[in-house]
Specification:
The protein has one helix and seven strands; from the N terminus they run E-E-E-E-E-H-E-E. The protein is mainly beta. The protein has one domain. The chain has a five-stranded antiparallel β-sheet with strand order 4-3-2-1-5, with helices on one face. A hairpin with a 4-residue loop joins strand 1 and strand 2. The C terminus is likely disordered.
Length: about 120
Amino acid sequence: MEPNGIYVILSVNATEYHWGIYVTGDDLRQGGVVHHANNKTGGWSYERKYTNNLVRSKMLALALKVGTVPLPQGHAQIDHILGDPNMISQDSGFRCTVDPCYSDLNLEACSIHYIGEFTI
């Protein structure tokens, strides 16, 4: 992993797959932040959690780099965007809308700022 990277991560356990967004900081030894949806309370809700052992996790199946955090305010922008409850859909097909004004997040994978809506 690289400093200030944005990764789509996929975790696997015995019965299901779970994906999220992992954002690293300046110092990889300090870990990073996982942004994901969980349904621990019965409905999907956003969770932001710090972790320093993701790369050592036996459940991690994939970490695909999709971008780089623009500095100096990029981490705060990402927290704001991914923490917006309107980004989490209750539909069975998860939908994520991306406002064109956030195109400066420098996402490399699919030119996400040109796509109004996509389904994962």
